[in-house]
Amino acid sequence: MLKRAGLAATLLTCLASLAVAADTCFSPRDNVGLPFRVFQIAPPPAPGEEAYRYYPITDSVTLQIESIARAKDSPINAFYFLWSNRCHDVPGHAAQCGRSKVGNFLYPRLKSGDAEIRPYFTTFDKANGCTLLQARNALGEASQPLTGEGERLGLKVAANREGLLALAEDGRLVNVCVLPGEMPSNAKGILLDYEVADGRTQEMTLAFLTQFAQLVHARGKQAILFINALDAPSQRHTSITKWNASQLVRLFDFTVVFLWHNNRQASIGDSFAAQLSVLKGEYGDQKIDPKRLIALYELNNTSLADAKTVHDLTLANGLAGVMLWRNWAVVDDDCQSTTNAKIACVTKGQCS
């Protein structure tokens, strides 16, 4: 438990906010004077919205594509959160991959009774092809021509969720690509969650992510690359390595540096240093623009000292900002809660 005295500065800030919005600890006033950008994985607030749970926020990243319209006429940037599809070995289908047994994420979730129905792709080309079709649809391309392109790749393209359950085979949507719909015009861009871990090579990863970033930029939007820790064991199956990592940073407007409790070094500061080493390449000579990096901070399972470490290294290294990954941490109206104390610390430096 954190001592009350250690929360004094945070409590005073929160009490000022509570005078206006009784059901939240933070308010729009907590966006003022931030030392760097704060990315929240949440739908954006409407302009001036008081009773919004995820202040402070400068950038929203959301699965709820339609919610991006709320940020119109607002200083908050809104990005669509898109999951990159992975390849699977599906029983009864010839496949070239098969490490992961978990299907691809579909939002909103599709259920048949208590069972969740997820998409599965049997080749790397089908998985990547669907991700690119989904991005093109989000960027404004109509579903009908995309359906024809998907069919040439061996995909069944669904422009909506009607009839999806009828396409399921043994609880799986096999080679079915569900389009998300068009982003509102005020969308800043797309965050791609690239946690495929399906055995692709480093060359395949670079080629696909180059194609993705170029696609987004051609539409005048920004691209964010969200990845697991660069030195995590899973990267050997996703193949972001010292060979291609620095190239990826140059391709994307922002790349996330993943900082969480279960890092290999048992130290968030040491984990950050180890990941920077990956970014600098095999010979440590690659120059990395720190303004293209975002420190992702896990709110759950970490300490106030960890929050201060992330705040300090973000400032000291000149990073673009921090992204808050709640990972089931509860953000409520209690300004004395450990979670709210860590938010005040990592975003504003109010750590004592």
Detailed description of the structure:
With 352 residues, the chain is an alpha/beta fold. The chain has a domain at 1-57 and 227-352. The protein is built from nine helices and 13 strands. The chain has helices at 8-18, 124-138, 143-152, 202-218, 235-238, 245-251, 268-279, 304-316, 338-348; strands at 37-41, 59-62, 77-83, 110-112, 115-120, 156-158, 172-174, 176-178, 189-193, 222-226, 254-259, 293-298, 321-325. The strands form three sheets. The protein has an eight-stranded parallel barrel with strand order 1-2-3-9-10-11-12-13, surrounded by five helices. Strands 4-5-7 form a three-stranded mixed beta sheet, with no helix packed on it. Strands 6-8 form a two-stranded parallel sheet. The longest helix has 17 residues, at 202-218. The chain starts with 7 loop residues before the first helix and ends with a helix. Mean pLDDT is 91; it is low at 1-22.
